Request: fold
Amino acid sequence: MIWQSVLSEDARAIKASEIRELLKVLADPEVLSFAGGIPDPDLFPVSEIRLIRQRLEQDEELHRKSFQYSQTEGYLPLRQWIAARYSTPETRLNADNVLVTNGAQQSLTLLAAALLDTHAPIAVANPSYLGALQVFEARRPTFIAVATDDDGLIMDDLERAFQQGAKFLYTIPDFQNPGGMTLPLNRRQRIIELAHEYDVPILEDIAYRDLWYDNPPPPSLLETEGRYLGKDRWADDGLVIQVGTASKTMMPALRVGWTIAPPGLFDKLAILKQANDLSSSGINQMLAFELASHHLPDHVQMLREIYALRRDAMVEALRRHLPNSVHFSAPSGGMFVWLTLPEGMDARRLLEKALDQEKLAFVPGAAFHANGGGDNTLRLSFSTCPPDVIEDAMKRLAGLISREARSA
Ligand code: PMP
Reply:
């Protein structure tokens, strides 16, 4: 059977992620990777999890329940915790607004299923999170790639996208993946104004929001919209749908994410989830709830301190060693530094040389561009290596880039 000929149009539209292909190379233990956007496993809260499991095993009824199918909408105490954590005096969220999902990735999948007709136009940042582009791609949309600068989305370009009929905007306002940018408050306010002027839903992905290293980020788009609308109006008039995850602050293997959605959309998302996987893992949601309610602030504080040192090591080494023709700016949180190489330098070819000559990996940036381009960009992640390793590796990478720039 030639499977290519029987595949559905949707399946044909979805492409292998460049990151997945790349991760295969990383099986080589000699390669030092700055490619994956993953948390450092050495920092996982394993002793806290051990304690939580012991406590759970002592409660026979709850322990048994943890292995049963759970409600499609999610484990109620976890939904209540999420609602309380993200509620504001204006939005007044409750558990009924929170759908627990199998990672933020499933949130995006369900939102695409709920909101996106085949070939519909949607607005995404250029560059944008590859995993989201991949989800949307399966529905064969028309991507409207919105330009960004060091502060994230550029408002005139976003307005153009809305004028062109974008069905929604997908955006990561805090420490963006892959660009590292954080939208300042005035742009957040402008996004909300534009959303309401053109009646366009906003999918706000807050995957990295808690990982700030200098100051907390400005209010989220959800909070900003709450203030814009005033008390108690979000449930009826809100356009911001917020997607969060436990992957970056707890552990990705929990596969616990969530969607905060207004009531008019919520039920449809819950039905789509039911059709998709019946429910998320009960035991994992319980672990996430216990971690969240007893250990999270201290754990996140520890992550901030350690990741901040790694961010500093990367930024300082790049500042010291990169030629002036390479542009980057220091991220104030998250996991990524985004480099723009001199025009004409191809990051894919650079990766081949980095692997071959320096045993170093990063992600070439082209894949993060919905409509092509970005051949001279790349993403570095500082989350998994100690500062001295980062310093040495960045010096070697910068050396390679300098040699390439000279020979161009
Ligand atoms: N959104 C962003 C911006 C991400 O970087 C990621 C993971 N790399 C996800 C969503 C998906 O996270 P998860 O499914 O693990 O919650």
Summary: The mean pLDDT is 95. The first strand starts at residue 32 and ends at 33. Residues 3-45+298-407 form a domain with the Aspartate Aminotransferase, domain 1 fold (CATH 3.90.1150.10). Residues 296-321 form the longest helix (26 residues).
